[in-house]
Amino acid sequence: MARAPVYYGDYLKLDRLLSSQEPESVKAGIDAHDEMLFIIVHQAYELWFKQILHELDRIEADFGTIPVTDDAMGRVVHGLNRIHEILKLVVGQLDVLETMTPFDFLDFRDLLMPASGFQSLQFRLIETRLGLSPATRVPFDDKAIDERLSDRDRVAFRAAGDKPSLFDLLDQWLARTPFLDWGGATFRDAYRTAVEKHLARDAEMVRNDPAIPPEKRERDLKNIERAIASFSAIFSASDDNGGWRLSAPAVQAALFITLYRDKPAVQQPFRLLAALMDIDETMTLWRYRHALMVERMIGVKIGTGGSSGHAYLRTTAERHRIFGDLFRLSSFLIPRSAVPELPAQIQARMGFVISS
Predict the structure, then answer these.
(1) DSSP structure class, residue 343
(2) Measuring CA to CA, which residue among 180, 188, 179, 174 is closest to residue 276?
(3) Angle between the 310-319 and 267-298 helix axes, to the nearest 10 degrees?
(4) Exposure of 349 by Cβ count < 10 A (0-12 exposed, 13-18 middle, 19+ buried)?
(5) How far apart are CA 245 and CA 264, in angstroms?
(6) CA pseudo-torsion sign 215, 218, 223, 224
(7) 303-331: b or e for each residue (b if 16 or more CB lie within 10 Å)?
(8) Vertex 136: Cα angle to 85 and 307 (nearest 5)
(9) 94 closest CA partner among 313, 278, 288
């Protein structure tokens, strides 16, 4: 052979990997059988987080080019789908961890203080690089997140926040979407008219339905009014974007991609948007499952890092959404029969088959 043969254990550095579990209970002379499980599950988390960050490296490089080529788009979608599968596996690991009972956890819990999963730099980097807004992030015990990190980790965390996130790259890429100018009329004008007509019809149905109690009718009508105002904001020239985090051009492009997703030119872009929603949904599920597990393990006690335990985690599940705007688009979808027909010249540009 031109090079030395590779041995399985040496290649995977198993001597180092399998000797990296050092239970605090053993050092303290305490019998805590389940601490080994606790360590291995969390080490496995960190290995998967490393892989997610590795995928994000290539995704950001591909997605940050102008234009994003077809080959790059394929890699981006593939990488996002892989991240989603990893996150599903991360959620599944909680099933293994929950074979440890609260009584088992008490055998070694106090030995872990003040260490906490909150201090996982890799998970914080994943949140930041995906695009979790600092303004949205829930303070930890009324303090900024980086105050609980080591000096070295704090530098890495802040450096990640100084770079464009995947959310930023998505906004910029969506804003460059062609096909929205139809020549004379535009997609924006046609779809705005169609949606406002559809929502007005919903309001009329609510007003005329005798089975709806007055209080609910009033509440539903106000919700429809807010939906109309929010939708109209993305077509407005004013600075008020109706609470959308994405820019108005990006929201319009995302709507276009969602509506005309069967057209060849936007099939991959639609898969990209779907993959981002899958990631956001599964991260939310993981946070919620984690909150339930913590409540099951420690009840109303504080967490090992000093947080309010499950209450803090449950709050992050509700507020640490990144791609919520993509979910919000569903409020403004209308039946296929009411979707504006694409002009012939746009149809011709969006297909694989070119005809005269």
Answers:
(1) P
(2) 174
(3) 170
(4) middle
(5) 28
(6) positive
(7) bbbebebbebbbebbeebbbbbbbebbee
(8) 85
(9) 288
Nearest to 46 by CA among 109, 145, 126: 126
Q: How far apart (Å, rounded) are the C-alpha atoms in residues 218 and 221? A: 5
- Per residue in 39-58, pLDDT (tens digit) is 999 999 999 999 999 999 99
Place of tokens 């003040």: 114
What angle (nearest 5°) sits at the alpha carbon of residue 120, between those of residues 116 and 126? 145
Question: Which of 84, 49, 343, 3 shows the shortest CA–CA distance to 190?
Answer: 343
Residue 327 CA, distance from chain mean position? 11
E strands, 37-154, are: none
> To which residue do tokens 């499952």 refer?
289
pLDDT tens for each residue of 272-320: 999 999 999 999 999 999 999 998 888 755 555 445 567 888 888 889 9
Residue with tokens 């403004």: 332
> Taking Cα atoms as reference points, which of 327, 179, 173, 187 lies closest to residue 264?
179
pLDDT per residue as tens digits for the range 173-201:
999 998 887 766 678 888 888 888 888 88
Cα–Cα distance, 356 to 346 (Å, whole number)? 13
pTM for this prediction? 0.89
Tokens of 96: 């293994």
